[in-house]
Design goal:
alpha+beta, six-stranded antiparallel β-sheet, 3 helices, 15 strands, about 45% strand
């Protein structure tokens, strides 16, 4: 009887201690450098803030990757970047939703919150949400490191937030999806296309596959901003293989 009691205690201790270790590994904040401070507007005095500096009334989905705060004539702003890991979801095969298969999915989010003068709390101005889904192949959903810019390229007093990211689902070496989503105030623009597979040969020559994009017609009317975004696309389109 004593031996049985000892084994039960040992088993319980092992289970609970393992659970504690797993819970301790959960991270509410996983820092990845997303903001390109070099090409962003220095006069805005952009400040990266930690998880505990985000007001409690601000709600967002996913694991926080980076948060940036600044102030301008419109008020105080907080820009949040977050993403999920890969998770299983039900892909329904009929309208009645009685048959389904499990697929893999991953998503990313960007939130802009603003507190204008006279307001007590931050209010959400816009949200970017995108995802990739598939099953049985390699998948990546994420922001390009040190690529997002916060600027005022046309010097009209309205900040532009330009967010490049990639959605890749592949079984070979085909180009993935690349986008640059831009918000100027509440106006949204976009460059959408594909990543470039960039192969460097022995003579340091680079051969590219893919890398093309299409831009919204309305962004092409903003010549300075369109030129800036085209240069950003060229800088970040390559996937190194």
């Amino acid at each position: 009887m004593k031996h049985i009691y000892f084994l039960i205690c040992l088993l319980c201790t092992s289970v609970f201690s393992q659970t504690v270790i797993q819970e301790d590994m959960l991270q509410p904040y996983l820092h990845i450098p997303i903001l390109d401070e070099v090409h962003s507007e220095s006069s805005l005095k952009l400040k990266k803030i930690g998880y505990d500096e985000i007001p409690l009334h601000i709600e967002f989905r996913g694991t926080l990757l980076e948060a940036v705060a600044w102030e301008d004539k419109e008020g105080a702003h907080i820009l949040l970047f977050s993403k999920t890991g890969t998770f299983a979801y039900k892909a329904y095969e009929d309208i009645s939703k009685t048959r389904y298969t499990f697929q893999d999915k991953a998503a990313l989010y960007v939130y802009m919150f603003t507190k204008t003068k006279g307001d007590d709390i931050y209010k959400r101005q816009w949200r970017v949400y995108d995802y990739a889904k598939n099953y049985g192949v390699d998948m990546y959903v994420g922001f390009i490191k040190k690529a997002t810019t916060i600027t005022d390229v046309d010097q009209d007093g309205t900040v532009e937030v330009s967010i490049p990211y990639r959605l890749i689902v592949r079984g070979g070496i085909d180009p993935g999806v690349m986008k640059i989503i831009v918000y100027e105030g509440t106006n949204k623009y976009a460059l959408r296309g594909e990543t470039a597979i960039c192969l460097t040969k022995k003579k340091q020559e680079t051969q590219e596959f893919g890398g093309t994009f299409k831009a919204d017609k309305k962004i092409q009317q903003h010549k300075k901003l369109f030129k800036f975004l085209t240069e950003r696309w060229e800088q970040h389109k390559c996937e190194a293989f």
